[in-house]
Amino acid sequence: MAEQKRIDEATGTSTVGHEWDGIEELDTPMPRWWLWTFYATIVWGLAYVVLYPAWPMIDSATKGVLGWSSRGDLAKEMAADAKRRAPTVNAIAATAIADLPAKPELMQAAVQGGGAAFRVHCVQCHGAGGAGVRNLYPSLTDDDWLWGGDLAAIEYTVTHGIRNPDHRATRASLMPAFGRDGILDAAQIGDVVSFVRTISRQEKPGAASARGASLFADNCAVCHGAGGEGGRQFGAPKLTDAIWLYGGDRDSLTTTVNQPRNGVMPRWNNRLDPVTIKMLSAYVYSLGGGEKGLAPETAGAVEEQGADGQP
Amino acid sequence: MVSPEDLSGQPAPLYEARRGVYPKTVTGPFRRFKWAIMAVTLAIYYGTPWIRWDRGPYAPDQAVLVDLANRRFYMFQIEIWPHEFYYVAGLLIMAGIGLFLVTSAVGRAWCGYACPQTVWTDLFQHVDRLVDGDRNAQVRLAKGPWGFEKIAKRTLKYLIYLVIAFWTGGAWIMYFADAPTLTVDFWTGQAAPIAYGTVTVLTATTFILGGFMREQVCIYMCPWPRIQTAMMDEKSLLVTYKDWRGEPRGSVKKAQAHPGAFGDCVDCNQCVAVCPTGIDIRKGPQIGCITCALCIDACDGVMKQVGRPRGLIDYCTLDDAATEKAGGTAQSIRKTLMRPRTLVYFGVWIAIGAAMLFSLGQRTRLDLAVQHERSPLYVQLSDGHVRNNYTLKLRNMETRPRRVAVTVSGLPGAAVWTEGGTREGAGQTVILTVAPDSVTRLKLFIAAPGAGPARQDFAISTRGLDGDPRGDSDIIQFDRPEPGQ
Q1: pLDDT exceeding 70 applies to what percent of chain A?
Q2: Whose CA is closest to B118, among B312, B319, B276?
Q3: Which of A29, A128, A243 sits opposite B14 (nearest CB)?
Q4: How many CB atoms lie within 10 A of CB B420?
Q5: C-alpha distance from residue B5 to each of A17, A32, A174, B1 (Å)
Q6: How far is CA A34 from each of CA B116, B118, B425, B473, rounded to the nearest angstrom?
Q7: Which residue from A minimizes the CA distance to B419?
Q8: Is B7 exposed, middle or buried (CB count within 10 Å of its CB: 0-12, 13-18, 19+)?
Q9: B484 pLDDT above the threshold of 70
Q10: Closest alpha carbon within chain B to A7
Q11: What is the pLDDT of residues B433-447, one digit of tens each?
Q12: Do A30 and B6 touch (CB under 8 A)?
């Protein structure tokens, strides 16, 4: 590599003096405005260092005189968004849940907001999209409900939970452990299972199911209904349909009668505000299984009637 | 430029100050052509947003509008949605190939005539002449001391620069919102901050790039001269000083005194005086030459005065230059332009344009996109049926509300209903009203008997119920529990 500066003939410009395999570089002078631009960037950089967080310290950085931070930006954006959502949230708060479907825009907003809350608080058990987990947690998307699937019933369940020991208003019931506690013996349990599988059209009637029918009438019908149609005031599942939370085959049913699960759901009124619960309920309702509820005042009358009908 | 003397003594300066360029007024066919192009391009730029175009009550009535907020691009009767951005990509490809075509045929014609930097620089140089006078007056004023006259003229000139620059920046934002509304909003302080910011930035760049940087942009900042140089070949037209005809230079008097000793160039320096980038074309092809051809006009004028044939400086290809130098005659201009390379470029350019126009005519205006919900894949219903959930996106690209039938076919015993509806009384078709010029997104529930294959393909199709029945159709899967589950 020869260090030989020379004047390039074609351009009249000096070369830098290096040569690589016959290739040389022209030492074209920079335009002066470029130099000014360079000084301007230095000034900009100095100003930036003073105004914004710049020098890394041991566990943070210098604050900068503007006091800017990305967390501050986030807080501002969150506040602005809360302000944006406030009218909708207030409107939802002022609307009785049963009246939401009559206001499609409000209902849609509630479903959106509920979906967001569901993804934070509910998916751990009920799964993404409310699909449920087999043998553990019920699906929220089907048309079979233990405690009722209209908006008001869902809201009550979310608010007060199921079988919460510390809460009086919680949904509560207890299926006895017929096998474990010796209420029925193994043969009797087999007969009851046969009967249940008959009314759900999984088995043909036979001697066992005939024996099971009277056992069912004595032990089970009080909650599950005479025909196994279920009882929502006790969260007693319908036994005649195709949906089984803990399985509808012989083994699963035997296990259930021996030792029922009596599943638990936390109440949410001590963790979430009423508007979020309302939106959550609207979301669960929208998953496909929502039942048309009665108008609020008649619904109350029906509930009273049901309470009267209890033995 | 560094002179050889610098090497022996002082080191060469690292930075070079800009040398003033004061182009002289010139007349001629190329100057007139530049006037025409300037008038047309500026008229298009400033005027286009003000053209109105009636699209009915649901769409804006501006002929050319880039509606970023609503993600629509309107261009006369064409409306582009974001998912059709490939049309814009196609336009960019056409622009690219168009540049190949123009460059291979007529060299840096883009630089010389149509580039915004050239057009605005030209405009600002006319302002210089209007305020300061022609070349000599400009040089005198630049070198003269700061007195009342200079301050007054500079103030006036920069003020005119600023008005043009502001008008340029202001015209830009009109492409992104309804122009009359935005104008009122802008002057009453109600426009978006981004509008003021954009106008400020573009005013500043126009003022600086057009008023002061000028040829520095072409020589130092712009990559195009380098790229275009690479795309030219020996058959591309470029502005050439025919040195074999012009050299050696000598004045008319010298030529009369020594007949035959001198070439046609009378060394009048007019070609240098009119050059907007301040170069000497007689040094041969160079990066600073934007091929605006004003030196051709200047030289032709002088040649006419001294009674010599025109074209001492002229558009000429490298091949023709070699031929003429050897005493031959150059190819006809038609033959130079119509050669395989330019014809192939032209063919590709036309083909892309035709393909885009064809596909624009063929696109459906009622699009359907169905997504099968994965969580859960299927839902067991209490009566033994199975339900699947789908997310339906109905894209109504017409600017009117539409009634649409969504039909399920190929799924026996299916019942279909939408969000808010119920399974009772559901059939295989739902009728929906979709909003104009928007995407309607809703949940679709489909229940079918539980007995059947675990995975079954079926079709969902849309059909317009209001005049135009054309729609779209999608094949999608219906899932059931695997046997044994």
Answers
A1: 93
A2: B276
A3: A29
A4: 13
A5: 16, 21, 106, 11
A6: 22, 21, 76, 59
A7: A286
A8: middle
A9: no
A10: B4
A11: 898 888 888 899 999
A12: no
How far apart CA B408 and CA B441 sit, in angstroms, is 17
Of B447, B469, B468, nearest to B458 by C-alpha is B447
Picking from B395, B419, B422, B392, the residue whose alpha carbon sits closest to that of residue B407 is B392
Torsional sign, CA A194, A195, A200, A206: positive
Q: Is B162 on the interface with A (CB under 8 A)?
A: no
The residues, ordered by sequence, that sit 6+ positions from A115 with a Cβ below 8 Å of its Cβ are: A283
- Other CB atoms within 10 Å distance of the CB of residue B304: 12
Give the closest residue to B455 by CA, choosing from B434, B474, B470, B477: B477
- Residues in B touching A37 (Cβ below 8 Å): none
Q: What is the pLDDT of residue A140?
A: 94
Which of B379, B384, B423 is nearest residue A139 as measured by Cβ atoms?
B379
Q: Chain B window 437-456: which residues touch A at a Cβ cutoff of 8 Å?
A: 443, 445, 450
Contact of A138 with A221, CB cutoff 8 Å: no
Q: What is the DSSP letter of A14?
A: B
**Cβ under 8 Å to A: B residues 366-385:** 373-376, 379-384
Distance CA A114, CA A284 (A): 8
Between the alpha carbon of residue A1 and those of residues A16, A17, B8, the distances in Å are 12, 9, 21
Residue from B121, B277, B275, B126 nearest B210 by CA: B121
- State whether residue B460 is helix, strand or coil: strand
pLDDT class for B258, splitting at 50, 70, 90? confident
Residue B3: per-residue pLDDT:
46
Residue among B2, B14, B443 whose CB faces A13 most closely: B2
Retrieve residue B217's tokens. 């942009």
State the count of interchain CB pairs (< 8 A) between A and B.
95
Spell out the long-range contacts of A207-212 with Cβ–Cβ below 8 A and sequence spacing 24 or more.
none
Chain B nearest CA to A175, separation (Å): 22
Q: Copy the structure tokens of residue B295.
A: 């030196």
Residues in chain B with CB shorter than 8 Å from the CB of A13 are: 1-2
Q: Which of residues 401-420 of B touch A (CB under 8 A)?
A: 419-420
Whole-number Å distance between alpha carbons of A131 and B145: 85
CB contact under 8 A, A31 and B2: no
Residues of B in contact with A249 (CB under 8 A): none
Asked if A27 and A15 count as a contact pair (C-beta separation under 8 A), the reply is yes
**Element spanning B390, H or E:** strand B386-396
For the whole model, what pTM was predicted? 0.75
Residue B386: both structure tokens together: 């199975």
Contact flag A142-B15 (C-beta cutoff 8 Å): no
**For strand B366-372 and strand B313-316, is the pairing parallel, antiparallel, or unpaired?**
unpaired
Angle between helices B116-132 and B29-47 (to 10 degrees): 110
